[in-house]
Design a protein that fits this description.
It is a single chain. The chain is α/β, with parallel strands linked by helices and about 280 residues long. The chain is about 35% helix and about 15% strand. The protein has helices spanning about 40-50, 65-75, 105-120, 135-150, 165-170, 190-200, 220-225, 230-245, 255-265, 270-280, and strands at about 10, 15-20, 20-25, 55-60, 85-90, 90-95, 95-100, 125-130, 155-160, 175-180, 200-205. Strands 3-4-5-8-9-10-11 form a seven-stranded parallel β-sheet, with helices on one face. A two-stranded antiparallel ribbon has the order 1-2. α3 (about 105-120) packs across α4.
Amino acid sequence: MDTAGSESITIGGDLTVNRLGFGAMRLTGEGIWGEPRDIEEARRVLRRSYELGANFIDTADSYGPEVSERLIGEMAPYPKDLTVATKGGMTRQAPNKWAPVGRPEYLTQCVEMSLRRLRVERIDLYQLHRIDRKVPVEESLGALKTLQRAGKIRHIGLSEVNPLEIERAAKSVPIVSVQNRYNVGDREYEKTLDWCAKHDIAFIPWFPLGAGKLTEPGGKLEAAAKRHGATIAQLSIAWLLHRSPVMLPIPGTSSVKHLEENMAAKNLRLSAEEWHEIEEAARP
């Protein structure tokens, strides 16, 4: 039986976390804007995620903006084995509206404010949320490199990039992670995942449950999920864990009930033949 690979992953050679984390984007208002509808439930979700083994929490200064980081900061001082990763370089204008800004002085300010909200002296994993096409990536990463040398950042990652962009960025700073949109029904960044696996770089899929029509009742994955006594969401997460040893899924939710369901996905056990069947069923 396939066991979906190792239960942990080491990022940057020295940062080991469990391979099913928690994405904190949904701990905000509608459109990833403002305060959550139920702030106490959001706090419970954060505490429960760690209790269930998610010792890697992913967030960004633009979630809210600032709301997600602030809620996570309330957990400080953190357990020794808890890693909080954040991102900067995206500005917010309104609900569901985003714009990249990669100017060095802006990114420097982003890091300083994230340190304050998260209540830490060093961010273990700081990711450039998007490459700003108006600013050479070397300039954006130069600011992060300076902060890394100052001891305010441990490791640096990228988001929504292809192999050529990773290679260019790696000429400026070591890149230890890539956070791209990826799920069982959306594999646009398949080549990027394979590149990360080849170079031992953590691949953090955002929108890990967004399988589109595949998740609808009567869809191709429903029968497989029922056969294994699981939900489609659980099957989607388990498939990501099976897909590659460098995969670090971060399913997010604002509900403790959904959180517990998602975290149970790591216990699913399917054969190689069953995984192949599911992958084929999910192809467009």
